[in-house]
Amino acid sequence: MHYRAWEVVRVSAGVAYDCDVLVVGGGIVGLSTAYAISRAAPGTRVTVLEKEAGPARHQTGRNSGVVHSGIYYRPGSLKARYAVKGGAEMVKFCAEYGIDHAVTGKLIVATDRAELPRLHALVQRGRENGIPVRELGSAQIAEFEPEVRGLAAIHVGTTGVCDYVEVARQFGEASGAEIRYGARIERVDRRPERGVAVRTERGDVVRGRVLVNCAGLYCDEIARLAGDDPGMRIVPFRGEYYELARRELVRGLVYPVPDPAFPFLGVHLTRGIDGGVHIGPNAVPALAREGYGWGVVRPREVAGTLAWPGSWALARRHWRYGGGELRRSVSKRAFTAAVRRLLPAVTEADLVPAPAGVRAQAVLRDGSLVDDFLIKEGARTVHVLNAPSPAATASLPIGREVARRALAMLDSV
Length: 413
Prior knowledge:
This protein has 413 residues and is α+β, with helices and mostly antiparallel strands. It is 31% helix and 27% strand. It contains ten helices and 20 strands. α1 packs across α10, α2 (78-97) packs across α10 (395-412) and α8 (309-330) packs across α9. The longest helix has 22 residues, at 309-330.
């Protein structure tokens, strides 16, 4: 589809537009969307509103920096298609702009016989997704990771690491968009016949023809402010990390075999681009959408989570799994025991607390965890309602898809 450049910023009704597309959220998805719009339709005026003082302060800047291969995701799903394509594009983007990155490959290791069928299923899934996978026996694991132990493993060569904060910053710069930091949204006035006006806490009003909601942890709230029913609720899960003091114990990336019932990948070992090794995350309910520690509690947000029927259904369905995650959160000994399944040489003294992240997980009314990227449209609005991991890896194709929808709306109004 060809998109014309939008140069007219005043409609016959007398509304003066500050931009054509108003993007809410300065994380990697919002900035990738701005970048994609500028490439697909040069001349389109884009404004990005971000409540923090800089880009990528939440999910983007608080993950393990992994460029995922796409092996975990259901064939044909957006996650599978966008992660495979996006991973290759991310490596190319980093090389083009001189952003630190490395294609390291990773091991997925089975440490118990009960995990072997799931490991074999991952091999099949990887092949269905077009990902080269090498199966390893117990003795072959040491060729890649001398200190790691397991019954069997698979090696995925396309996995890597990069600096996603720098990637997001480069998306913003290359997009040519106007990016306003410190712009926390207080009100949204959406009028299908005219456009969308947003008022910030500072009292600024920004008017656009189309609004794109990439607000991450607050995407459902922004959707409701715009007058759309998102049909889901963000339930925040904190992922807690440690840094490995003896970083020489790990050469690259090492993952356990994940439980297919959950979108979480389990406690894994990640050597980042700075040479440090992160261990984690676990996944525990956060007491605030930006609850990076147990001491961060926002009663209004806790009440909102508890008022959502899906939260209770989720708790009833997965209380046993959640109990194990909580135990590892409050007990360093329990966390260390989980790590020792993969890395027997590690001790409690080797684990140094590191900054946590929070996953913006969409939960449906029946308690189902949304397991794919979720993008919905309203009148003059496009909402990205579920974009946790591997969204950073997939940010280029996600941005193009969101941009396509936003530009199609512009073309129809």
